[in-house]
């Protein structure tokens, strides 16, 4: 995972509530074998409507998405996070997220920022014309107009994001403990191991 | 050391803590990791990109199931037939490639032991009591029938387990579901779990690991217990467990990957010690009486929408909760059913006997007992899909295939099949299926398909009468 200390740039001013993972990436994309390339299927049904925010050239390549309440509800498919990442989105700002989605997003280096609806309304306004910055160091969202909204983040997740540590990398650092556990189990419950003798 | 009485779940959890972190989460060791073609390609890709390897291939077992067509897989000369759907073919090829590259033990699509991942694990003796078992599939809960702590995981977690053989987890709450008494005539384990889900609701188990206890569970075969534990997830619980006992040990002994010799004896001693201690406290307890359980089925699009076969389609207005009323109206609209209709008057066009819930040898015997000497009704398409190649072989040795085919059922190759319509087996829009699978969600068996979840015997009864039928009228 790449380290993220801040995300700056244009933001899709979407504001939609209750966006489920079927909207983020429809089920027929689940037959893929890679994480990559799912951006093509991201928001497929939304993008089928002309004039949608995702195809507006003003926001092309925007790294931030501003959405409404309960973003990422529905199925647990991690493909939703992969699709956003492939689209170039590195942060989503919304009043609330589904637990599973924010977990999946975090595991893929996407910051989920929770801000109250008033802040979202202001950011939706600014995003139409100007860039926005999400700063993990100070845990703020700022605009070129002196707006400054503070947010909080799980300390473990913040640490992982800022140092580009993925959970796998962190757990691999516990290799010694895992190896010790394996040795104990080989003694106590030898039938668990299928290692060729 | 102070010894507080512990539940089965707590004992298995404690035995797998590698490290306890300050925030209370634990690094938990994973003893058994099952892999299939749908949720693993991106995990292997992640390993490859990071230059990582599979830490314990010996604790990992891969088998394809979801995408495989259930039609013959080789031609008359034994040559492998191509898979028509290019995306399915690609996912299956990716699994073959990944297991070769990472050295993961693999049961190939053409091997006799191939089958649905949750049928294969116990059948091979890969799943053992007191182990932690994971798979990128929510029905991993099935393996809890052997006294394992078994649950489904997401693709990033699949990659995490492949790389580290561990997961970072928080402990769940415990729920006892006790079923007292003796099951009535014609009542099967599927009816028991449907009754349980009807009682606790589809979200009733959220945040809990269920332990199934009571005389009914103790009297059940291992196959029946697998059916019950399999559907724990339909009750919202991530896992469901049953304490290992002589039934479990008899089932496992001699299986291909089960321990042998001195290891076996040592294992059985430990497995026996896992039963919940007298005086241990569950966070929640639910008790059902077997005499209240009849052959049952679902009427709606949630597995909690359960009625006895002698019942009627409920009136949405009869539910107290307004959101449930709205959901029921939507369900009935999708299902094309009117309130008050007798379940036994509902005609069906399809019957599916299979899935990781009900595709083991006992399930096929129960269905064959009903099909024997009868014939599938006009206008009904009925298929039997064994859960694995070994189940298929055994059924054929017992002559069950001939009973089914003589009765007009299709006898097919093992796989997930019509359980989820990711392969070519689908129910057409607007048509109705009596199915032994586990999910009656909107579109689960194909866009617009209408599913009634039933036991294998009830499915066979529906096939021969062309409508939902009380199996007790056909047997005995
Ligand atoms: S049979 Fe159905 S529920 Fe079971 S693993 Fe296959 S698709 Fe999932």
Radius of gyration of chain A: 20 Å
Counting H and I runs of at least 4 residues, what is the number of helices of chain A? Answer: 8
Strand order of the largest sheet of chain A: 1-6-7-8
Total of helices of chain B: 15
The main sheet of chain B comes to:
5 strands, parallel
* Uncertain stretches of chain B: none
Strand content of chain B: 15-25%
Distance between the termini of chain A: 37 Å
Bound small molecules, by name, code or SMILES, are: iron/sulfur cluster
| Computed structural class of chain B | alpha/beta
Low-confidence runs of chain A (pLDDT<50, min 5 residues)? Answer: none
Strand content of chain A: 5-15%
Helix content of chain B: 25-40%
Tally of extended strands of chain A?
Answer: 8
Shape of chain B from CA axes? globular
Mean pLDDT of chain A: 91
What does this structure look like?
The complex is a heterodimer of chains A (197) and B (476). Chain A has 197 residues and is of the alpha/beta class. Helices cover 33% and strands 14% of the residues of chain A. The longest helix of chain A has 14 residues, at 175-188. The mean pLDDT of chain A is 91. Chain B is α/β, with parallel strands linked by helices. In chain B, 31% of the residues lie in helices and 16% in strands. In chain B, the strands form five sheets. Chain B has a five-stranded parallel sheet with strand order 16-15-14-17-18. Chain B has a four-stranded parallel sheet with strand order 4-3-5-6. The A-B interface holds A 30-35, 76, 78, 82, 100, 104, 107-108, 156, 167-168, 171-172, 174, 177-178, 181-182, 185, 189-196 and B 15, 18-19, 23, 27, 29, 31, 38, 41-42, 45-46, 50, 52, 58-59, 67, 87-88, 90-91, 94, 128, 130-131, 154-156, 159-160, 163-166, 168, 257, 259, 263-264, 266-267, 270, 422. Bound molecules: iron/sulfur cluster. Iron/sulfur cluster is lined by residues 65-66, 116, 118, 137, 139, 355-356, 416, 419-420, 437-438 of chain B. Chain B: Catalyzes the isomerization between 2-isopropylmalate and 3-isopropylmalate, via the formation of 2-isopropylmaleate. Chain B: InterPro entries: 3-IsopropMal_deHydase_lsu, Acnase/IPM_dHydase_lsu_aba_1/3, Acoase/IPM_deHydtase_lsu_aba, Aconitase_4Fe-4S_BS, Aconitase_4Fe-4S_dom, IPM_dehydratase_rel_enz, IPMI_cat. Chain B: Its cofactor is [4Fe-4S] cluster. Chain B: It comes from Sphingomonas lycopersici.
């Amino acid at each position: 995972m790449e380290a993220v200390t801040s995300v700056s740039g244009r933001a899709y001013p979407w504001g939609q509530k209750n966006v489920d993972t079927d909207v983020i990436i429809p089920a027929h994309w689940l037959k893929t074998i890679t994480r990559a390339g799912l951006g093509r299927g991201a928001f497929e049904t939304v993008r089928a409507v002309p004039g949608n925010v995702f195809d507006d050239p003003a926001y092309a390549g925007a790294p931030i998405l501003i959405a409404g309440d309960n973003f990422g509800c529905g199925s647990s498919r991690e493909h939703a996070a992969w699709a956003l990442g492939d689209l170039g989105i590195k942060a989503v700002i919304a009043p609330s997220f589904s637990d599973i989605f924010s977990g999946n997003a975090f595991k893929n280096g996407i910051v989920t920022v929770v801000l109250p609806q008033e802040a979202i309304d202001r950011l939706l306004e600014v995003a139409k014309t100007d860039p926005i910055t999400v700063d993990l160091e100070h845990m703020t969202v700022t605009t070129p107009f002196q707006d400054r909204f503070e947010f909080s983040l799980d300390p473990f997740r913040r640490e992982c994001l800022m140092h580009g540590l993925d959970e796998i990398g962190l757990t691999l650092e516990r290799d010694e403990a895992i190896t010790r556990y394996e040795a104990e189990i080989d003694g106590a419950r030898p039938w668990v191991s299928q290692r060729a003798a | 050391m102070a010894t507080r009485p512990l539940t089965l779940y707590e004992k298995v959890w404690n035995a797998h803590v590698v490290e306890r972190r300050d925030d209370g989460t634990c690094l938990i060791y994973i003893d058994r990791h099952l892999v299939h073609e749908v949720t693993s390609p991106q995990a292997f890709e992640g390993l490859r990109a990071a230059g990582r390897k599979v830490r314990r291939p010996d604790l990992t077992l891969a088998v394809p199931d979801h995408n495989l067509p259930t039609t013959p897989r080789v031609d008359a000369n034994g040559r492998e037939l191509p898979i028509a759907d290019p995306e399915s073919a690609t996912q299956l090829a990716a699994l073959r490639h990944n297991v070769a590259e990472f050295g993961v033990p693999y049961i190939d699509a053409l091997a006799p032991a191939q089958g649905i991942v949750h049928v294969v694990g116990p059948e091979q003796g890969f799943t053992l009591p007191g182990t932690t078992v994971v798979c990128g599939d929510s029905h991993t809960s099935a393996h809890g029938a052997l006294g394992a702590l078994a649950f489904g995981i997401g693709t990033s977690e699949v990659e995490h387990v492949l790389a580290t053989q561990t997961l970072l987890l928080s402990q769940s709450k415990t729920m006892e579901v006790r079923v007292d008494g003796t099951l009535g005539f014609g009542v099967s384990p599927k009816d028991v779990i449907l009754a349980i889900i009807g009682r606790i609701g589809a979200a009733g188990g959220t945040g809990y690991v269920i332990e199934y206890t009571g005389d009914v569970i103790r009297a059940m075969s291992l196959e029946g217990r697998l059916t019950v534990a399999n559907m724990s997830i339909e009750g919202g619980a991530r896992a469901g467990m049953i304490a290992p006992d002589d039934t479990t040990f008899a089932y496992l002994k001699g299986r291909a990957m089960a321990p042998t010799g001195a290891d076996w004896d040592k294992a059985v001693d430990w497995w026996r010690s896992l039963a919940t201690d007298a005086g241990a406290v569950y966070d929640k307890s639910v008790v059902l009486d077997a005499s209240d359980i009849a052959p049952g089925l679902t009427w709606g699009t949630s597995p909690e929408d359960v009625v006895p076969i002698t019942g009627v389609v409920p009136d949405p207005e009869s539910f107290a909760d307004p959101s449930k009323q709205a959901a029921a109206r939507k369900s009935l609209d999708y299902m094309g059913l009117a309130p008050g209709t007798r379940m036994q008057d509902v005609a069906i066009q399809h019957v599916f006997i299979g899935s990781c819930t009900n595709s083991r040898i006992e399930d096929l015997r129960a269905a064959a007992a009903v099909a024997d000497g009868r014939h599938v009704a006009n206008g009904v398409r009925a298929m039997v899909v064994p859960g694995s190649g070994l189940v298929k072989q055994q059924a054929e040795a017992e002559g069950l295939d001939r009973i089914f085919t003589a009765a007009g059922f299709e006898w097919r190759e093992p796989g997930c099949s019509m359980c989820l319509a990711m392969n070519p087996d689908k129910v057409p829009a607007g048509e109705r299926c009596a199915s032994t699978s586990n999910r009656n969600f909107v579109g689960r068996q194909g866009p617009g398909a209408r599913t009634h979840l039933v036991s294998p015997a009830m499915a066979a009864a529906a096939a021969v009468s062309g409508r939902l039928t009380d199996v007790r009228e056909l047997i005995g």
